Amino acid sequence: MGALLPHGVPKEEVLKVMAGFTDKDVDWRTGKVMTGLYDPGEDAHSLAVEAYIRFLPHNALYVNMYPSIGKMEKEVVSSVAELLRADDEVVGNITSGGTESILMAVKTARDWARVNRPEIETPEMVLPVTAHPAFLKAAHYFGLQAVQTAVDLHDYRADLTAFAEALGPNTILAVGSAPNFSHGAIDPVAEMAALASEKGILFHVDGCVGGIYLSIMRRMGENIPDFDFSVPGVTSISADLHKYGYTPKNASVILYHNRDLRKYAWFVCTATTEYVVVNSTAQSSRTGGPIAAAWAMFRYLGEEGFCDIVRRSQEATRSILQGITEIEGIEVLGKPDMCMFTIVSEKINVFEIDDEMRLLGWQMIPQFAYGGSPPNLHVSVTQANVPHIDKFLADLRTVVENLLRHGSKVNKEELSCIAIEVAGKPVEEVFMAIIPAVGLTGLDLPEQMAALNTVLDMLPAKLRDELLTEFFNLTS
Ligand SMILES: Cc1ncc(COP(=O)(O)O)c(C=O)c1O
Predict the structure, then answer these.
(1) How far is the centre of ligand 1, averaged over its atoms, from the C-alpha of 181 (Å)?
(2) Are residues 435 and 453 in the same domain?
(3) How far is the centre of ligand 1, averaged over its atoms, from the C-alpha of 378 (Å)?
(4) pLDDT digits (tens, 9 = 90+) for 63-89
């Protein structure tokens, strides 16, 4: 946009110009987006939008000015707490998303430990390699050491022996996922929480993606292992509203097992010339829109609505999982516990499957090899995908058969030589070495991502992180 226009332009013109910006955006209404989008359907969506816009101008920081927001926040938090079998002691707040809920859990644990375990100078957090990157971000922001532990490579749940061994004198917080995003597998939360609690360590359950969904599955009679506040030793849980709560972004819930722990979440400040700041979350000023939309969505769907969504999504997931077993050359990793899973292949480069499926309109998400997990494509099934699963399977079959028949277009040997050659070199040199080999011509990512993903997959994670930092810092 550059400099401000000297004069404003009429509303219609502004909207017309903006409409043109979306040409290259993924169309979220096709039912073909299988990651990061939770479309509740037209009627529910329009209600959420209306509720959101009505409360958009309300600043949730000023609870005294807008008691409506405080009331809706309390009611949504208590609905989520009830799903997670909390007792009356459990308290919580709405944050902007899974990452903020996790940041709050880690910051709260750190500040709790400063008071309750003052002998610890370098606090540690123990977490399986499948725990979400938000925990590593929190460790980075709040000065904790993150100790990653192995998972069982058959089912991608935390390896209890490795987990137990990692809990040391400096551990203040341990983490389990229900489920992890990457493989859709629930960690053995009961055993992990018991091990942590024996040593006086706080235990957080990341239910960002599964907290609501798995609770509904349990209510429908499915056999879900205990992962919530019914488990002794669980001290906090994050559960996102803007994922399988089907509410618009940005909304998540962070719950603490009692007020004594939540005490360490607050930031209160009167020591400036400014107004009084009282924050239970990282954000201060924030719109009431997502809170209102979440409240409206919970009211609209009720238990029956959620059960209907979960039933349809589970049926669709079972059909896809069965369908994949009938496609030669690909398989699903581990034993997913809900509607999320990953596709792997020993015969084909999965990043090429991703490119070909994207050409047909399907959006999945590539994940790199790490901690013994091979490179894979992640799929999250939502209710919006349900009518399209036969087409998904048919397209997947065609893509896989074509790749098997025609062979790979990505030269893995060449990329592997580059990956070996650049190891240990400064990031700028690595960047220049891989550009010509992966189809990067300008500042945009290439349409075909397979070569780039393949070489990134071959690099050590630390170098990969530096390279991506360099790229996005240059291009954004
Ligand atoms: C298990 C899990 N935890 C945390 C997060 C982070 O959530 P957000 O993207 O809302 O910050 C995600 C996101 O997918 C997730 O799946």
Answers:
(1) 7
(2) yes
(3) 14
(4) 899 999 999 999 999 999 999 999 999
Whether 98 is in the pocket of ligand 1, judged by its Cβ within 6 Å, is yes
Query: Is residue 177 in contact with ligand 1, taking CB distance under 6 Å?
Result: yes
Residues 204 and 107 both lie in one domain: yes
- Asked if residues 216 and 177 have their Cβ atoms less than 8 Å apart, the reply is no
Domain count, the chain: 3
Return the axis-axis angle of helices 450-458 and 461-475, rounded to nearest 10°.
Answer: 140
| Ligand 1 contact, 58 CB (< 6 A) | no
The best mutation among 137, 181, 237 to test binding of ligand 1, ranked by most ligand atoms within 8 Å of the C-beta, falls on 181
- What ranges make up the beta strands (E) of 124-273? 124-128, 145-149, 171-177, 202-206, 236-240, 252-256, 267-269
pLDDT in tens, 254-287: 999 999 999 999 999 999 999 999 999 999 999 9
**Separation of 138 CA from ligand 1 center, angstroms?**
13
Instruction: Write the CB contacts of 391 (distance below 8 Å, at least 6 apart in sequence).
Output: none
**In ligand 1, which atom is closest to the CA atom of 99?**
11
Lookup: tokens for 438 = 């992966």
Beta bridge partners of 240: 252
Task: Based on the fold, state whether residues 257 and 284 are members of the same structural domain.
Answer: yes
The count of other CB atoms within 10 Å of the CB of residue 470 is 15
Nearest CA to ligand 1 atom 9: 98
Token look-up 């209160």 returns 268
Binding site membership of 357 for ligand 1 (Cβ less than 6 Å): no
Query: Considering 387, 406, 425, which residue would you say is the last residue of a domain?
Result: 406
Structure tokens at 439: 């189809």
166 pocket-lining for ligand 1 (C-beta < 6 Å): no
Is 3 within a domain?
Answer: no
Evaluate: CB of 206 within 6 angstroms of ligand 1.
yes
Domain that holds residue 89: 51-296
Per-residue tokens: 423:
């190891």
pLDDT tens digits along 103-156: 999 999 999 999 999 999 999 999 999 999 999 999 999 999 999 999 999 999
Is residue 8 one of the residues assigned to a domain?
no
> In angstroms, rounded to a whole number, what is the distance separating the alpha carbons of residues 217 and 225?
11
Could you tell me the pTM of the whole model?
0.97
Residues 379, 284 share a domain: no
Q: What span, in angstroms and rounded, lies between the C-alpha atoms of 192 and 143?
A: 23
| Cα–Cα distance measured from residue 48 to residue 50, given in angstroms and rounded to the nearest whole number | 5
